[in-house]
Each structure stands twice: as structure tokens, then as C-alpha cells.
Automatic annotation (TrEMBL), chains A, B:
<keyword id="KW-0057">Aromatic amino acid biosynthesis</keyword>
<dbReference type="InterPro" id="IPR008927">
    <property type="entry name" value="6-PGluconate_DH-like_C_sf"/>
</dbReference>
<dbReference type="InterPro" id="IPR036291">
    <property type="entry name" value="NAD(P)-bd_dom_sf"/>
</dbReference>
<dbReference type="GO" id="GO:0008977">
    <property type="term" value="F:prephenate dehydrogenase (NAD+) activity"/>
</dbReference>
<feature type="domain" description="Prephenate/arogenate dehydrogenase">
    <location>
        <begin position="6"/>
        <end position="295"/>
    </location>
</feature>
<dbReference type="InterPro" id="IPR046825">
    <property type="entry name" value="PDH_C"/>
</dbReference>
<dbReference type="InterPro" id="IPR050812">
    <property type="entry name" value="Preph/Arog_dehydrog"/>
</dbReference>
<dbReference type="GO" id="GO:0006571">
    <property type="term" value="P:tyrosine biosynthetic process"/>
</dbReference>
<dbReference type="Pfam" id="PF02153">
    <property type="entry name" value="PDH_N"/>
</dbReference>
<comment type="similarity">
    <text>Belongs to the prephenate/arogenate dehydrogenase family.</text>
</comment>
<dbReference type="Pfam" id="PF20463">
    <property type="entry name" value="PDH_C"/>
</dbReference>
<dbReference type="InterPro" id="IPR003099">
    <property type="entry name" value="Prephen_DH"/>
</dbReference>
<dbReference type="GO" id="GO:0004665">
    <property type="term" value="F:prephenate dehydrogenase (NADP+) activity"/>
</dbReference>
<keyword id="KW-0560">Oxidoreductase</keyword>
<keyword id="KW-0028">Amino-acid biosynthesis</keyword>
<dbReference type="InterPro" id="IPR046826">
    <property type="entry name" value="PDH_N"/>
</dbReference>
<protein>
    <recommendedName>
        <fullName>prephenate dehydrogenase</fullName>
        <ecNumber>1.3.1.12</ecNumber>
    </recommendedName>
</protein>
Amino acid sequence: MAVIYERVALIGMGLIASSMAHAMRRHGLVAHIAGYARSAETRAAALEIGFADSVYQSAAEAVQGADLVVLAVPVGAMAEVAAEIAPHLKPGATVTDVGSVKQAVIEAVAPHIPEGVEFVPGHPLAGTEHSGPYSGFATLFENRWWLLTPLEGSAPAPVARLRDLLEALGAKVDELDPEHHDLVLAVVSHTPHLIAYTMVGVADHMHRVSKSEVIKYSASGFRDFTRIAASDPTMWRDVFLTNKAATLDILGRFTEELFVLQRAIRMGDGEQLHAYFTRTRDIRRGIIDAGQDTDAPDFGRIKRD
Amino acid sequence: MAVIYERVALIGMGLIASSMAHAMRRHGLVAHIAGYARSAETRAAALEIGFADSVYQSAAEAVQGADLVVLAVPVGAMAEVAAEIAPHLKPGATVTDVGSVKQAVIEAVAPHIPEGVEFVPGHPLAGTEHSGPYSGFATLFENRWWLLTPLEGSAPAPVARLRDLLEALGAKVDELDPEHHDLVLAVVSHTPHLIAYTMVGVADHMHRVSKSEVIKYSASGFRDFTRIAASDPTMWRDVFLTNKAATLDILGRFTEELFVLQRAIRMGDGEQLHAYFTRTRDIRRGIIDAGQDTDAPDFGRIKRD
């Protein structure tokens, strides 16, 4: 494929940024990848692994001359980074981000972006429970959604060019309103993560059930929760702090609903439980039909010989 | 391997029983597999797939002459089935079950078991979100735990013989007290399932977020919940109705804990969230080290080429 951006600067080089770098290289989409990370270990890893062509001690240096700047730091660090890079952005550059929350990132970043630079907020619905520069791989975005939430009145050309890049990484691109994005993500990602963290925490606190039994007998249900609850703590702290309203809304609904089922258990209302458990099957069917997950039993984790 | 039981009767022929049949055949562990299922479709499937040598219209007929009887029906159906087969059990036979709850099954089954027949309650910690006779496969139990909760004063020889069979299926066998079993399972399986059902139900009920968006953007967190929430509704209804006390206990702890995190989000207490999310990572590490799950990112669901 043809080069889409001459020079890309990655601010933050964890799972998402390093995967972008691997994929951009593989498909020949950029001429030069510059990188910045706060930790010296991450900067050294980026050079050692080779997904960055150059790394810098500061974000301000890394963005110089970049046609595309990707903010791939935790949501809580966006404002500071944006303020730091703003005076160094190349006229005509595009800035995007990969944060899981969009309204808070827009509030943090947009005020710093100078005239002549376009900010196109984005969020790849991709990732694994692993984090750091060594966890990245080129196929992470294949067949996954990458949501863009362009600002009102933003120029169409920079959005279209970014879209070209993301599609070339294998992603499917959709545009959403930032507020709606945050609500949808609270349902499909943020609240499920909080619940998984909580359930794993409960198990950790149980005194009558020893930790070794929890681990030993974790098959069937619980181990799926532990995978989710192994995700990056800093990233998730920032998600909950910055998507507070939507998460609390969905948590409220969740608790109400849980109490209804809890009451059905207490009252021995088998019909209500059965009806509920039957309806939820349909959603799974839809996800598989939409190609968003495998129908292989247990995610194909079990070898069927 | 050598034949361990001449004749085995499977009462119920869903995922677990059909997987046992496939595995017993593959390893030559039994000479004849008789089967019973309530539905004519399942009986026909067992013969068509060929995992049963003979099928019967009633459980009473199926158990005749069997050295091992496996009760593989939902927990709520155990009492009726036990009452029906009791007069037809061969002296010296062993009866086991595969129910996810042990105290309720013992109460339902043990009173019916005649003198000279041994009842050894069991529970394989294995399964997938699929159900029915076509969902079975021979390797389902490999490297999975199979928990036995022998009754007080039960003879050691029948327990040892059943253990031999289960180990020959590839399972690791542990013996537990039934009450402790039910508590451990409430933590590692029953409560996580209820929570997953609830979260999927919440998404289903959301009006502002359309169902198509929930499905479309389900990657990262939510789709894992939908897999769990696609499990057999009848089986799970019975689990919650019969493991009521332990499930309500763990649900109470879960809700308390969730409220603590919810409050931390509302108050903006990032330190508390970060500390909590860091502790839960350790449990995941333990599960992977114990060989109970894969460390492949996203369960290996993503191709890394």
C-alpha cells in the first residue's frame, strides 16, 4: 500500500501504539515512526523491538515535523501531554487519540490544539489483557471497530485521511457523537470491566474459600472475569474517573436488575429466571452472526482434538 | 486402556454425558453405553452420532444391568429420576451425577438409593456455552477438575473405581465436603454466571443504546459476558434455585464490594480504584500459572499470525 502519512509520532508506546506501529510498518503506510514514552524502559523497548524509527525524551520533541500525532497515553494524562505538544505541532498536522472515553478527552485536548491543526478523536475497540510495548502485534485491529468522534465543524479531508490509515490497519471505521460513544462504551466495556474487577475482588477477599481453591477451580465463568480484571490498572482507573456519569448510570441499572434476579432466587421463582436466561442467549447469537466473536466452544480455548 | 465398567447408563444425554460417552469410547473404558433422554430428538441424535450403543424410552429401562449410572439431568430433575430408577438398579452398581450443586443433589438422590448400591456424587468443572447431544466432544475433560463429594461412610472401592474412570477421561479428581463444594462453586461459577446474565440483560433493556450497537461494538469485555450468558437456561435456573444460600451470600458480598467501587468512582478516588485493579491482576497470574487458562492474549481468539 501507499504511504498515507510521511511521519507519525506515537505519544505513549503501550499495547495500542506498538500494535499500530507494527501494522503501519507491515503495510508500508508511513515513512517514519517517531515515539515518546515516559519510561526509559519503554523507549528502549521500542528501539529494541524496532517498531519505532526514533524515540525522544519528550513528547514535544517527538511531535516535531509529524503529519499524524497519536496520543496513546491514559485518559488522565491527555491534558498535560496536549498542552506540552501544542506549540510544537506542524501546521497541517492531524492529532488523534486512542482513549476509551471521548467527551473527557475532547475537553482535555481540544482547547490546546492550535489553528491549522486538526484534532480527530478516536477509539479502537481492540486490545487484550496484556499491556506495555512488548504486548503489541500487527493484527490487533483486523476486523475490529475503530470509532471516530470528529468535532463539530472539523474539516472532512483530515478525517478521511485518518480513516484511510485505520482501514489500512484492518479496522472498520464508524463515526459517533462523543456523548453517545461514552454511553455505548459504558454498556459494552466499562461497566463489564468494573463488574469483573469486583467479582475477582470478592473471591480474593473470601476467607472460607482459600485463594488456592479459587485459582484451582476457576474454570467455567470465573476465569473469564479474571482475564478482564487483569487489564491495565492505570488505564481503567482513568476510564472510570472520566466516564463517571455514564458508568454510574449503567451501574445503577445493573444493580436494579441484579436485585430483581436476586429476589427471584430468594423467592424460588424459577420461571422468571428461566425466561431471563433464555432472552440473553439471543444477544450472544447476534454477536456471533455479526462476526464479533467466535462460536467455537469456550472461545476455542479447548482443543477438540 | 482396560474396561473399567462393563455397562454404563447415561441418564440425560446433553453436553456432559455425550462428552463422557465420546471419551469412554475413544479410550475403550466401557463395553456398552446405554442412554436415556426425555426428548425423542436427543435419543435419535445419540444413535445417529453413535456415542450410545442403545437408547431407551425410560430411565428405568436404561439403568437395567448397568454397573455405572450417570445422572446427567438438570439438578431440579434429579429427585424424580432417582425415584424412578431406584427399583431397577443392579446390586453392586455405582450411581454418580454431574450436577453443579452437591448438597441439593444429595438430598434429592441419596434417600432413593437402595442398599447394595453406592451413590458417589460428582461434578466435572468442564463445559462450554453450547448444550445438547451434538455439543459433546471427547477432550472436554482433559486437564479439568472433577470434584467428588462422597457421602459419609461410603465404601472406598466404588469411589476408587469411579476415580479411575474419570482420570482415564483426562480429568484431575479431588474430593470435597458437599457444603464446601457449594460455597466454592458459588464463588468461581454460580455468582459470575448470574452477574454475566444480568449485565447482558441490562444491555438488552437499554433503549438509548440500540441492540445493534451493543452487538456491533461488543468487543472488549461484554462479549465474554455474553458467552457465559448463553449457557443452558434450565441448568442454570436449577443451580440458582438449589444453591440458594451460598449464591445469596456471595451476591451480598459482591454488591457491597461493588458499592465501594461505585462510591470511589463517584468521589473521584483514583487511588482506591488503582489499588483494587492492581490486586486483581495477581489472581489472573495464579490461574495461568496453575494451568487453568491460557496466557494467549484474548484467550488466543486473535490471530497473531
